[in-house]
Amino acid sequence: MGIFLSALVCALHLYSLASDSLILRRITKPFIIPSLFYAMGASSPILIAVAFFYTVGDVFMLFAEKSIFLTAGALCFACGHLLYGSYFLSMGFSPIGMALALLCHVVFITLMVRSGRAGVKEVIYLLLLGMMTVPVFASFRPEPKALAASVGAALFIVSDSMIVLGQTGVRSCSDMAVMTTYIAANFFLLLGI
Questions:
Q1: Maximum distance among all alpha carbons in the chain?
Q2: 3: Cβ–Cβ under 8 A, 6 or more apart, which residues?
Q3: What is the rounded CA–CA span in Å between residue 132 and residue 146?
Q4: CB proximity list for 1: less than 8 A, separation 6 or greater
Q5: Where are the alpha helices (DSSP H) in the chain?
Q6: Each residue's pLDDT tens digit in the chain (193 positions)?
Q7: Among candidates 111, 103, 123, 130, which has minimal Cα distance to 164?
Q8: Is 28 buried (19+), middle (13-18) or exposed (0-12) by CB count in 10 A?
Q9: Would you list the DSSP string of 89-120?
Q10: What are the Cα distances from residue 7, in Å, to 14, 181, 193?
Q11: Contact predicate 149/88, CB 8 Å
Q12: Neighbours of 139 (CB within 10 A)
């Protein structure tokens, strides 16, 4: 039942983007994360806190045309990223994997800055995104759950990079692309727990 409900909420939200239905978008978006986390059985207190911050961030992002809501949404997502990162760190990690993941993230941010694609706010947010993605990549083991979590972290980087590129005016990305990768990122991260 939970999987069906979550799939329905996500499908309706993506339909709202395709049909440009603002009312349906505002109804479905706040239920994406709670339905995914419920469907995937995420019940630990830290994962419930992640779901809370991501959901509140989603609500703020519904009004992101005003910078105060964009900033509040980004702060909520940053809190969620930090909590997700601590969850994955608690699962253990390889020091070599951590070093490689950090190096890749630093190179990514450096390329964004050097190409003029990220200002100070964007760099801070990308660093906070790294607080979630780096532990996921560093905890990689050759098993299906770890692979799923790594795919989720990679999709989160893609999703949030599209938002950063859109906010800086470098490249406009469709809401459909952002939300599809965001939903898939959370699904795969939850598969990895």
A1: 48
A2: 39
A3: 14
A4: none
A5: 2-18, 22-39, 45-61, 67-89, 95-114, 120-138, 144-167, 175-191
A6: 889 999 999 999 999 999 999 999 999 999 999 999 999 999 999 999 999 999 999 999 999 889 899 899 989 999 999 999 899 888 887 777 778 777 877 877 777 777 676 677 777 777 777 888 888 888 877 788 888 988 898 898 888 878 877 776 666 678 899 999 999 999 999 999 8
A7: 123
A8: buried
A9: HTT---HHHHHHHHHHHHHHHHHHHHTT---H
A10: 10, 14, 19
A11: yes
A12: 24
Q: What's the CA gap between 9 and 29, in Å, rounded?
A: 8
CA pair distance 147, 161, nearest whole angstrom: 21
Give every CB contact of residue 148 below 8 A, 6+ residues apart in sequence: 188, 189, 191, 192
Read off the pTM: 0.86
* 178/163 Cα distance (integer angstroms): 7
Measured distance CA(44)–CA(50) in Å, rounded: 10
